[in-house]
Amino acid sequence: MRKFDVVVIGAGHAGCEAALAASTMGCKTLLITSSWDTVATFACNPSIGGPGRGQLVKEIDALGGSMALAADENLINSRRIGVNKGPAVRTLLTLVDKHAYNLYFKYRLEDQDNLDIFQDMVVDIKSEQGSLKVITKLGTSVRSLSVVLATGTFLNGEVLIGHKIFPGGRITAIPATEIVKNLKDKGLEFARFCTGTSPRVDFGSLNLSKLKEVKPIRPAGHFVCRRQFEDKPQLSYYLGRTNKETHKLILDMLGDVGFQRGLTAQSGMVEAGCSHPRVSKEDPGMSGLSQQSPRHCPSIERKIIEHPQKTSHPIFIQPMSRSTQETYLQGLSMYYTPDIQAKIIQTIPGLEDAKIIRPGYAVAYDYLIPEQLKLSLETK
Q1: pTM, whole model, 2 decimals?
Q2: Cα separations (Å) of 35 from 153, 172, 270?
Q3: I want to staple 220 with a disulfide (CB 3.0 to 4.6 A). Which of 78, 236, 245, 302 is the partner?
Q4: Which stretch of DSSP H or E encloses residue 33?
Q5: Helix, strand or coil for residue 307?
């Protein structure tokens, strides 16, 4: 049985940083991921930075992390926001090339000393003889002095779209279920998050003459301060707006698709930008857990309900890569059926003929309650 100093489970943004940090410090490290093709994948729009998060990326860079460098190397649009406010809230907001960013981290991880990579699903972690035994679905076992869980939206993940609910950490990815049961058996407690995404459309199907082009403001700067970067051409994004017709259609559709809105935590459905009849304390299919969002990113219907005085909301039409026509509709998070999503999108000027490549959806998933951690981030 192979032995490691550190085993990292999950190869999203956090898992990649953890594996690189441990191996760079000289620890013999193993990174286990359910899919080596989706390393450091953006589940939503490929955005890095913004209020709060921009400062966090700088802190990761100051600690020797890789996210800032990866973002600067692969950015396709950058701008400064909060420039009319105080210095504390001025920050960099970037869009990066989704596919190039993924390949950047794959190459970076494969080239890293002291780091092994293995594609499999972890099903159990056992404490034995002063070390941890990590067991995978394919029957592989390794020993480690420590294990880092960076599981993202995969623990007991369920995808919600229209009336349909099916297992998934993302819409095309299998969830991790066995490890949740085994960790619960060891006394660890979980709660549940729920978050949504927006539809992706074909850029070639948009009428740009009806949309406002937002060109990059140069120079916006970079996250990394310790080196110079080549000044590459950047892409514009576009701005559209919902209208009264959009809002009426969304409100009319709320009852038809069976969603329940405006419910409180006492009813078992904490507002998350996605609420669903199955998501309730009485429902064993959702582990009997109420839900909330890990971040403030309300769905379009939630914004319409909470701000009835507004006749429109901005939609940021963002490129996802230099190598694809796929375009993200930031601000239009929803998980109606694809045909209803298409009708809603096509009420927006400039998007009348928009073709959906990937519909929006929501994902509900378990997470470990952080109060179970020491200040060292070890479990109590």
Answers
A1: 0.88
A2: 14, 11, 31
A3: 78
A4: strand 29-33
A5: coil
